[in-house]
Amino acid sequence: METATINAIHTYDVAAIRKDFPILNREVKGHPLVYFDNAATSQKPQSVIDALVHYYSFNNANVHRGIHSLAEEATADFEATRDAVKDFINAASREEIIYTRGTTEGINLVAYTWARQNLKQGDEVIISGMEHHSNIVPWQIICEQNNAKLKVIPVNDKGELLMDEYSALLNDRTKLVAVNHVSNAMGTVNPVKEIIQLAHDKGAVVLIDGAQSAMHLDIDVQDLDCDFFAFSSHKLLGPTGMGILYGKKDLLNAMPVFAGGGEMIKEVTFEKTTYNELPYKFEAGTPNIADAIALKPAIDYINKVGKDNIRKHEDLLLNHATERLRAIDGLQIIGNNDHKVSVLSFVISGVHPQDVGILLDNKGIAVRTGHHCAEPLMNRFCVPGTIRASFALYNTIEEVDKLAEGLIKAVKILR
Ligand code: PMP
């Protein structure tokens, strides 16, 4: 399709955006790549790739402890990301921004510090029926260790949380509520503000898993009033191995430390160790310097395009895909509700998701098939897994049409 035609359909200059992502020029099995696995990880713009190369080729040094120029430059770039993240999620202070390896580590950090200290026998933790395994398993482990109880908010047939049931689960024993902002398996946007408010009314602390929302929705942790918010750099155009845990300062200060080692200490003697200030108290050892530095250009890129524009564009793709795919005989969308972003998950009667995935890959179309690390949700819908197409700011309507046509052909072959 001509650039002018592509842009006429879209809300912004998607052709120009595509030029910033070098991987989109490649072919897969003789076809131009159509990348619809964005919920698993997004592609990276040249500015992010350049930041990685620049750090290793120009100012590679360890951060914080050096007085030489390279160490100072690396530290400045490393810390600049913290300020960018603070603004990106509207945190009250940079001390509330903890660098992690990703959402999984952020959630585990809270489980092994706050929850291990605060959950007593008979206390309750509430999660939802649409959580990723990373927001299930850490709570199971800690509840087992502390003799606390794990409760689950049920999901309706449309893929929404049953809020009345949630209200009924809350009581004075509820100490923590941990839910995702957006479901990775269905794209459902959960009413987290209401969830947080209801939990706070019972005195419970709330962790929001923002792995799937940080790229698509405006995040304002002060407005949400969440106590913790975890997300991953690699799902928002940044590098892998880097993530953020936001926590309210008072909670973070009162929490025990997580990993011990260099950087997280103030003074060490064999008799006693005192710990560093926030955020370094939770950042033991040499951090992931390059990937932290390269998260800033990713955030800058998102800010430049604008979350509103990204959302409008992705909604256009999602609506078009929903319309086209609904017309396919035997196709059932999992997560059929009005509050969704960027994800279309579906099954097709008589064909296995994995076989469809392989046939689409033969046409250069990358989708994800399987349980999406949300096995309890798959059980809820009585499916072994789904086919998931997830959209990003650089995808086009033309690519959605290729997916629809690829699916029609795949069904013909497989049935
Ligand atoms: N929660 C959700 C909702 C996710 O989609 C993911 C990643 N698929 C995670 C948590 C875990 O993120 P990571 O693997 O980057 O730690």
From TrEMBL:
CDD domains (UniProt xref): SufS_like (cd06453)
An example molecular function term from Gene Ontology annotations: cysteine desulfurase activity
Keyword tags: Pyridoxal phosphate, Transferase
SUPFAM superfamilies reported in the protein's UniProt record: PLP-dependent transferases (SSF53383)
Cofactors named for this entry: pyridoxal 5'-phosphate
A Pfam entry, by short name: Aminotran_5
The enzyme's E.C. designation: 2.8.1.7
Role: Catalyzes the removal of elemental sulfur and selenium atoms from L-cysteine, L-cystine, L-selenocysteine, and L-selenocystine to produce L-alanine.
Name the UniProt record assigns to this protein: Cysteine desulfurase
Organism per entry: Niabella yanshanensis
